[in-house]
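yo

u said u wanted the structure for the complex thing, so here. seqs first:
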Amino acid sequence: MAALACQPSAWRHGYDLAAETGLKSGTLYPILIRLADRQLVEACWEEGQPAGRPRRHLYRLTADGLAAAKSALAVAAGVPAKAMRPTPQRVAAPRPLAGEGS
Amino acid sequence: MERAPVVLLRMAARMLPPARRQWAEALKAEAGQVPAGRTRVHWLAGGLWLVAREGSMARKATYWLGIGAVAAAAAWTVWLSWRAVSAADGEITTDRVRILVGLVALIVLPWAGRKRGWFGPVGSGAAARAFRVAGCAAVCGLGVALIRIDSHAGNNGIGYGGFNWMREVGGLTLFGAVLAMPPVLKARWPQLEASTLWSLAGLAGVVVWAIMPVQLLTIGYFAAILAATSRRSPVTGTSLVAGTVTGLASGLIIFGLAAISGDIGLTVVYPVVASIFALAIPAGIATAWRLGETDNSKDGRETRIRQGLLAGTVSGAVCSLLLTYVFIGFGLMMVFGPMIGLVGGAVGGALAADHPRKSPREGSRAAGLFIIARNGQT
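structre next:
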């Protein structure tokens, strides 16, 4: 979540996250699934067909996910969670789950 | 080297529920970006692990192994009925026909009920799957025990003498009528309350079961086990677990009492009734309490009592089945045991209905986020 919270408005892909966190695919994807089930992460398929490679599944934190991530990071750093609570303006509005459930 | 895991992952992804399938596809789509060689193979192996986890493959494999064991037990029962019982036994035809009918019921009931879901498919929880496999295996085991007893009893064993088509068909018709009773009543009188419906069916069931021989009773147990563990069953996993644990405990207490008194005959019938009733109460309490305060309305209270009642019924049935293994005279308890348990479970459910478990806090979720965030920071 820390990796996703660094650039909350940017869409990230699985290998990118795995490389940054050092998590293996068998560990990373179940975490992403759980976070998506709790609507802390939104997911969609890349738009258009890129040349030479299949479309990627992209992820980013929802507003709730960003709040939860900041809260958890604050707890980890020993800072009271209230001080880290994000203002609504700073949180990017979630986009519709284009590829979700398809 | 990378081709095989890609193909495997593509095939394995089909075993996932539709909502999860896209995650395996997402992982596969990423594989092209992973450096070729061992790293990519590890990435794809992670995908197979993901499918195994999300598809509950270990649980499904265990369940199907269990189904295989039940099929083997059923086949063994049929084999024994042909090989172990002397042809001179006057009841042999009766036994064989009833065993074959039981086998047909075991195959046909889940198939016939699959569309409406009365007897299948099995519920998604581990408790439902374990109970279905263990219950069916136990009933098959009872069939083996009955044949063994009969093979040593000559013409004085279980049953009513020679084979009689009219009696067998009549017993099965009565049994079918009890099974068909709830849907027929519901179709004829849609305004009928569910509790009235099941009370009427239960009453008819007791009358029919009491006059049915124990071999046909086992078919009723097959039907009850399949119905209780089907996906649309009202019996929760907690009710199944609490009922099974207390039912086994009740049976062991009765064996203990019988060992002390040196008798396991019908003379211990009062302690049996008392034990089933007494142990069904904690089953009802535990189940009603575990349901928690999800709904504090009158409906919530009724739901807790109903689940307590179901847990008690399971408890009585498990204990009675255990007792019938040891002493065939307790076969009648296979009818009355669940009823006694039902009363005990209802008492337990009513006791705990006003004291449900407090809703758990979301501590586990916060802990999970904490761990994830900490890993991300390091």
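The two ends of chain B are 34 Å apart (CA to CA). Chain B has a mean pLDDT of 79.
cya
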